[in-house]
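User: Hey, my collaborator sent me this sequence without any context and asked if I could get a structure. I don't really work with proteins. Can you help?
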Amino acid sequence: MSKDQVESSTKAIGRLSLQALTWLRDRQIPALPIPYSIAFEYHHNVINKLVERIEELDQDGEFDDETLDQLFREYILTKYIDFDGFNKSVVDIVDDTGSAVSEARNQLKQFKEFLKEAKKRLDQITSDDTRSLVTSLIDNTSETFNSVQALEKHLHSVMAEMRVLQKKYNKMQRQAQHDQLTGLLNRSALQSAFKRMQENENIEFLTLAVADIDFFKKFNDDHGHTIGDKVIKLVADTLVSNLKGSDIVSRYGGEEFVIILPNTRANDGLNLMNKIRQVVQNLSFVNKATGDKINGITMSFGLTENKEGDNFHCLFDRADKALYRSKQNGRNCVHCEY
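Assistant: No problem. I've predicted the 3D structure and written it out in structure-token form, which is a compact way to encode the shape of the chain:
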């Protein structure tokens, strides 16, 4: 890299850094490593999904610690760490190493048993030179066997450490793909799951639903964010418990959820969402801090079935329009966009 290129690169980084710090200052967000990296990547304008998500959030001004952590895990961590590639490499190394050690150990065991048997037969040989040579060979093989056993023990220890490391990266991968509060897929992981469904020959059609907790801001205003979070978690658990294993539900952001129903027609999806809507409106729990009963939770739904040539955004936009109709019609209802 030439001197001019280095200077140009340095100036560009400096400009992005200043923009990131200004952006954080304007929103009264401390310039800690995670918020700073988010602001920097946002102004770098390379991770398109991150830019879109921040611009959505910027309209509402919702940049709490949980949101910032989720943005970092979902968009930035996955940019710099190839979780799938790393995990596959670790698994391959662990499996290959273990197989090689076991095979070598078994071969040496067989060889040692062979030599033991040979020694018994050679005891009958009168030639001192032959017996001395074989005895030396047996002794050396025993030493080698003991060395391999020590190596095997060490490799088992290394393999155990690698498995621990693999588990840690699996946990990081899960955190990058799942919403911290509900454990549901986040929007980035949802879109990846949708793409896999589209490529699955066993899935001929699917229905996508967008759901929103009605008047959620009122729960936060009346009871505080802790109760608001509990409402979101309760709704998320209710959605999961009323869907079948192949269905996918995601927390798309805030109080909004997206549900994908593979091999489900729109009318069947409409009936299912109505059933879930009725379950949700009967939910209640007690605020332990005040003793107040929290109820009156309702949801609005919009859904649509995929058409030829649809991508995720096409379906989402149609389902979102149907959701808007549900809100216009008084909320706590379901509409379908055919």
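In plain terms: The beta strands are 206-213, 248-253, 256-262, 285-286, 293-294, 299-305, 334-336. You can pass these tokens on to your collaborator as they are.
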